[in-house]
Structure formats: structure tokens, C-alpha cells
Specification:
The protein is mainly beta and 423 residues long. Helices cover 7% and strands 52% of the residues. It has 2 helices and 48 strands. The strands form 3 sheets. An 11-stranded mixed β-sheet has the order 5-6-9-13-18-23-27-31-36-41-46, with no helix packed on it. The longest helix is centred in the first third of the chain and has 18 residues, at 2-19. The chain is elongated and about 65 Å long.
Length: 423
């Protein structure tokens, strides 16, 4: 719990620090029209990262659905402060042709967004609304797309931004790449996303071993997501037994991170892992997270399917604290094994001593289906090396076959501890 408190205090301090940073700097560049935005983009892409500089929008800008080359490059991330001034950039259009080279987690592929690459301890994008569409299907090893930024690097912040652009990420060719990330605000984030809202549908159908889609971020590694809301559907499509599909209302996956005070209000769907907040949480904290929308995983023959109102999988010392689910959680299809739960589909601490599920509530109906075993529970489908305390479920629980269902847990390994919980 000391780790949880320290992370939350750090992020709270960061939220305060980014709330007023733009007022502390003189404005170095004012942009009032599309030509000015293009000129700024071209300057960044020519090698000027604007580190230590502040850019502000003074008016709404319509890009008129032109093919938009993103701001920033793989070698020159934007490193300054971009203040949208509560204005809107509309008519954003990203296609396969304008997606650019991007390195994510030491692997190179293609990316697209209003910004391609944002990185730096003082890099910020704030007070901005984006409308339009991102619809790309490039070839490459790693693909990333986000309404505000394809990649948000370490130390960078997106603050008080609203994305209304639809994000659709596919791929071409027959070769299977390793990763694909689609997010409403950021495709792949190692920074902090604070007080942001997504209202653009996010769909990933890329050919990759790991495909991730989230309302706020496709994947969150380090950093955190705070006080943010998703109000658009999130889906991973393009079925294939050789792939893992991660769909989350807030983030497709969360690793070594904190997600706090967030809400998902629209449907989440996948064919292997689906979660109202995230499909996969590893070494992470999910706190004060709410899901009010249906979560569906349509399992495939011979595979496994996992779905949870908050997270599909809670792993490696992670915690879900003060979380609330009212959405229906359903696993359909013909998977061999399935795991469905109101809070977590499956929870296992892995190399750590224990996961934590504390003070969580589920009121949604939970149902599972599998050809062999459908572990289905009001709080968790399966518990192993997990402490589940002070939690309540009142939603109905059903499964086919019905041999492993429970009001609290469908199956609890002897290494799990359940106390002060009720159904």
C-alpha cells in the first residue's frame, strides 16, 4: 500500500503542476490559422523541437480534411508546450499515405495523429479539442495511432484535451507484426494523460501478434492516466488464433503505471481480452475506476477468452481499489477456456506475493461460455495469489458449462484469500 500511496501523491502533485504551467511562460509563437499550423509543423519536422518554448492557438482551425502530415518525427519529437487555448482543430485527416516512421519500445514502424511524437520532461499538449478521422493501414513492425498523439514519451503530458476524431488502425500485407496500438488520445503512452476525454470511436484491426485498443491510450507504460473519461466504443477486430487482442475502455494495457479516477461509458469488445477499464494490468494500480458499459469477448475455437468489468487480467502484483462496475460482462463464442468477472476476469500475482482487490463493487450481470471450462464470478472469474477484501457483487452470474461459477469467484485457488466480501 505504501507503493500505491506514493504513486498517487506523485501524480496528484503532477496534476497540480501542469494545471497552470502555460501561464508561467511567455508565448513564443501564436498560431491563428491553418497556414500557421502547417508552418509550425514543418519547423518541428525540420529539426526544431521547440524545447522550452510555448505555442498557443488563438482561434479555431479547420484543416478541411486535407491529408495531414503529423507534427514531430521519429528523430525530433515535439518537446515544447502546445496550448490549444480551449480552441478546436477540426478536419484532421490521417491516412496510410501520411503516416510516418515511428519507434515505439525500441521497435520501428508507422504512426499517425495530430502529433506523431511528443517527448521531454516539459513537453505538454493542453486545452485542445481535435475533430476528424485517423484511418490508416500501413505495413510495418509496430503501428501506433492516436487522436492527439501517436506516441507520448516519458515525461510528457497531455492535459485537458478532448478527442472527437475516430481512430481506426489496420495493416496491409500478409506478414504478422509484433505490436499495434490504437488510442483515442494517445496510441502508445509513457507519459501522463490528465483530465482528458475521448468521444471518438477506436477500432483496431491490424495484423499483429499483440493488438491493443483503448479509449484514452492503446497502451500505457509507466506514467499514468488520471481524471479521464471515455465516451466512445472501443473494439479490436480481425480474428486470428495467432494473435492476442486487448480492448479496454481507458487503455488496452497498463504496465508499471497508475490509472485513477477514470470512467468508461461505452461498449468494449474483443475476441481474447476485454475490460471496462483495461484488458491487462501488470504491476499497476487501478483506483477509483468506474465502468458503466457492456464488455463483450467473443471467444474463438481452441483459444481462451477473458473479460472483466474493470480489467480482464490483473497480474504481477497489481491492485484494483475502490472500483465500481455496473456494465454487463459477457463471454460468448466457442473458446476452450473462459474467465469472466465483474471486477477481474482473471487475477494472479505472478512473481509477486499477492494482487489486491479491495473495496470493489459489481452490479452488472456476468455470463461466461466455453467448450471446456467457463470460470465465472461476480467479482472474479479466477483468483490465484490474490487478496480480495471488502467487496460486494449483486449482479447475476451464469455460465455454460455451469460447473465453475460463484457469487464472488468462479474458482479460487488455495493461494487466494477472500475476506469480508458478499454476494
Amino acid at each position: 500500500m505504501t507503493k500505491i500511496r506514493s504513486i498517487m501523491l506523485l501524480l496528484a502533485a503532477l496534476a497540480i503542476s501542469v494545471a497552470m504551467p502555460l501561464r508561467a511562460y511567455a508565448v513564443d509563437l501564436t498560431i491563428s490559422d491553418a497556414d500557421g499550423l502547417r508552418s509550425f509543423r514543418d519547423s518541428v519536422n525540420s529539426g526544431n523541437d521547440f524545447a522550452g518554448k510555448t505555442i498557443i492557438l488563438s482561434a479555431d482551425i479547420d484543416l478541411a480534411d486535407e491529408d495531414w502530415v503529423p507534427i514531430g518525427t521519429d528523430g525530433t519529437p515535439f518537446a515544447g508546450k502546445f496550448n490549444g487555448g480551449n480552441h478546436t482543430i477540426s478536419g484532421l485527416r490521417i491516412t496510410t499515405e501520411v503516416m510516418r516512421d515511428l519507434t515505439v519500445s525500441d521497435m520501428r514502424g508507422k504512426g499517425g495523429g495530430l502529433f506523431l511524437n511528443v517527448e521531454g520532461e516539459n513537453a505538454q499538449i493542453a486545452n485542445l479539442t481535435v475533430k476528424g478521422s485517423i484511418d490508416g493501414a500501413p505495413s510495418g513492425n509496430v503501428l501506433a495511432a492516436g487522436g492527439i498523439a501517436a506516441r507520448l514519451g516519458p515525461g510528457a503530458v497531455i492535459y485537458r484535451c478532448l478527442n472527437k476524431a475516430t481512430v481506426t488502425l489496420g495493416s496491409t500485407g500478409t506478414e504478422l507484426g509484433p505490436y499495434a496500438y490504437a488510442g483515442g488520445v494517445a496510441g502508445y503512452s509513457e507519459g501522463h494523460v490528465i483530465y482528458c476525454v475521448n468521444e471518438g470511436a477506436v477500432t483496431a484491426r491490424a495484423k499483429a501478434v499483440f493488438v491493443m485498443a483503448g479509449g484514452i491510450a492503446g497502451s500505457q507504460h509507466g506514467g499514468g492516466i488520471l481524471f479521464s473519461d471515455n465516451d466512445a466504443p472501443v473494439a479490436v477486430q480481425e480474428e486470428g488464433n495467432d494473435r492476442r487482442a486487448y480492448a479496454g475502455g481507458i487503455a488496452g494495457s497498463v504496465e508499471s503505471s497508475s490509472v485513477s479516477c477514470v470512467r468508461n461509458q461505452q461498449a468494449v469488445s474483443s475476441y481474447t481480452l476485454a475490460g471496462g477499464i483495461t484488458a491487462f494490468a501488470m504491476d499497476s494500480v487501478l483506483r477509483d475506476a468506474v465502468n458503466t458499459a457492456p464488455v463483450n469477448c467473443d471467444g474463438q475455437d481452441g483459444s481462451d477468452a477473458t473479460a472483466g468489468g474493470i480489467t480482464a487480467q490483473l497480474y504481477n502484483g497489481s491492485a484494483a481499489v475502490n472500483c465500481y462496475n455496473t456494465g454487463e460482462v459477457q463471454i460468448s463464442g466457442s473458446s476452450y477456456y473462459s474467465y469472466a468477472g465483474g471486477i477481474a476476469g482473471w487475477s494472479n500475482a505472478g512473481f509477486y506475493s499477492s494482487n489486491k482487490i479491495y473495496n470493489c463493487t459489481n452490479t452488472g450481470a456476468i455470463s461466461g461460455s466455453a467448450s471446456s471450462s467457463a470460470r465465472t464470478g461476480g467479482i472474479a472469474g479466477e483468483l490465484d495469489k490474490t487478496e480480495l477484501y471488502s467487496s460486494v457483487s449483486s449482479g447475476s452470474v451464469s455460465a455454460v458449462p455451469s460447473s465453475e461459477i460463484g457469487g464472488i469467484a468462479g474458482y479460487a485457488n488455495p493461494r487466494a484469500v477472500v475476506r469480508d466480501s458478499a454476494y
